[in-house]
Design brief:
CATH superfamily of the largest domain: ATPase, nucleotide binding domain
CATH class of the largest domain: Alpha Beta
Structural class: alpha/beta
Strand content: 15-25%
Shape: globular
Number of domains: 2
Helix content: 25-40%
Order of helices and strands: EEEHEHEHEEEHHHHEHEHEEE
């Protein structure tokens, strides 16, 4: 008789996308979901769990659950997480799983980007961009809309270009006016699109990664890694191979699942796929206890407060029962 599936759940909830995966005991991805958060992280997690469940056998056994991303605490409460970790750790763990000797992780999403530097499997430096759109996927999305070309086709256009035209990429506004000028003087659309990829890479390396040693092996992940033109542009700028993992878009969720496996909880906090039917409500208020004026967020079910977070002093915190935030070695 075939054994039922046993594995670990990983959830990564960001401002743009919500990603869920289930990895089995051999650390292989058995199911994955990538969907838009659309400003509603609770609904996105519930929809993601529902969709993930359709990809799995009914008797699947979840041995542990981990959450990451900007809404990691919120999603941790919803699914019943055993471990809650930041995006840097989760992405590093996932990259190490794919390329154990990885030294540099390049991660570009829709509205943020990261660079992670590792030595001997340990994160030694990192940087994040959550402010400027010119260093994120939204830069290319905006230009794709302006060109009336689906962003999914950008990579194919970029690969057909003999070379990219020079486009000012330090600011999305300047890039658009520069791109329009290049169109008006007759540059091929393929060269313009590859030039946009090179501009994004140039912005990333000259700002976010400035002063950081970009050493091979290099792993490129995040939604923008779907664009093969970006891979070509990074390899051209760095003069080295750049590895794009098979599951590049959900690497944060994979890292969260692997961290749950590392923790190996004797009994998981996972609440089961039934949480898709529970009605959660969130609210916030500003604490007036001191000059920090912290915004405290709380999540409730039928009037009962499940958890609060957001304060600097811990006065209002209701911790997630049984959830570990202990340091798990990144190896």
């Amino acid at each position: 008789m075939e054994e039922s599936l046993r594995g670990y759940l990983g959830v990564d909830v960001g401002s743009v996308s919500t990603n869920l995966v289930l990895v089995d005991e051999l650390r292989q991805v058995q199911a994955s979901v990538y969907l838009r958060t659309m400003g509603q992280p609770i609904r996105a997690v519930q929809d993601g769990l529902r969709e993930l469940g359709t990809q799995l056998p009914k008797d699947v056994e979840v041995l542990g659950a981990g959450t990451t991303g900007s809404a990691r605490h919120l999603s941790g409460i919803i699914v019943g997480a055993d471990i809650v970790k930041n995006e840097i750790t989760a992405h590093a763990v996932a990259a190490l799983h794919v390329v154990p000797e990885v030294r540099t992780v390049l991660e570009i999403g829709g509205q943020d980007s990261k660079v992670i530097i590792l030595q001997d499997g340990i994160v030694v430096d990192f940087a994040m961009n959550t402010v400027c759109a010119a260093g994120t996927g939204s830069f290319l999305d905006h230009q794709a809309a302006r060109l009336d070309i689906p962003i999914e086709d950008f990579g194919d256009y970029a690969l057909r270009a003999e070379s990219g035209v020079q486009i000012a990429g330090r600011c999305s506004v300047f890039a658009e006016s520069d791109m329009i000028h290049k169109q008006q003087v007759g540059h091929p659309i393929e060269s313009i699109i590859y030039g946009l990829c090179e501009a994004l890479v140039r912005n990333y390396l000259n700002n976010l990664a400035k002063g950081k040693p970009i050493e091979p092996p290099v792993v490129f992940q995040g939604g923008v890694a779907a664009n093969v033109g970006m891979k070509r542009a990074f390899e051209g700028a760095l003069d080295m191979e750049v590895v794009v993992p098979d599951h590049f878009a959900v690497m944060g969720a994979i890292g969260a699942a692997l961290l749950a496996q590392e923790l190996n909880p004797p009994v998981t906090n996972f609440k089961g796929f039934r949480v898709t039917e529970i009605e959660y409500r969130t609210a916030s208020f500003n604490c007036k206890g001191c000059s920090n004026n912290c915004e405290i967020v709380k999540i409730m079910v039928e009037g009962d407060v499940l958890a609060r977070w957001g304060g600097r002093c811990g006065k209002w915190e209701l911790d997630l029962p049984g959830v570990s935030r202990a340091v798990v070695p990144v190896r």
